[in-house]
Backbone:
């Protein structure tokens, strides 16, 4: 259950990050209404944007990305695979070539690092 909660938290943070590039609290609050984003270019969104069906679809996409990264890089730690999965969620598994440069080609060029930093910030605030 803890892994599922972590994955949901990461997915929500990915969604928030994909909608805003500033640290402005107002921007973050505005973007919270878009809890889950499924990229229409690569997937057919299921259910309404705020439905359990949509959240489940997005979670499955993230889990699949993490599993594909684990298969591609079996020597990576679980934490590295999570981070690689976050990067792959944004730019595709093929884009992840090395741990050090996994974010080349992602949104902002630092996607997984930004998501992890935001997750740490939210955790430090008690979320």
Residues:
């Amino acid at each position: 259950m803890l892994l599922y909660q972590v994955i949901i938290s990461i997915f929500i943070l990915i969604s928030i990050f994909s909608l805003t590039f500033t640290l402005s609290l107002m921007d973050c609050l505005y973007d919270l209404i878009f809890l889950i984003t499924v990229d229409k270019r690569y997937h057919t969104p299921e259910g309404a944007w705020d439905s359990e069906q949509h959240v489940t679809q997005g979670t499955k996409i993230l889990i699949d990305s993490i599993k594909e990264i684990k298969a591609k890089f079996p020597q990576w730690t679980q934490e590295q695979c999570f981070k690689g999965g976050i990067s792959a969620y944004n730019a595709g598994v093929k884009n992840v070539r090395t741990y050090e440069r996994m974010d080349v080609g992602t949104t902002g060029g630092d996607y997984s690092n930004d998501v992890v930093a935001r997750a740490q910030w939210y955790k430090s605030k008690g979320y």
In short: The chain is about 60% helix and 0% strand. Residues 19-34 have pLDDT under 50 and may be disordered. Residues 52-72 form the longest helix (21 residues).
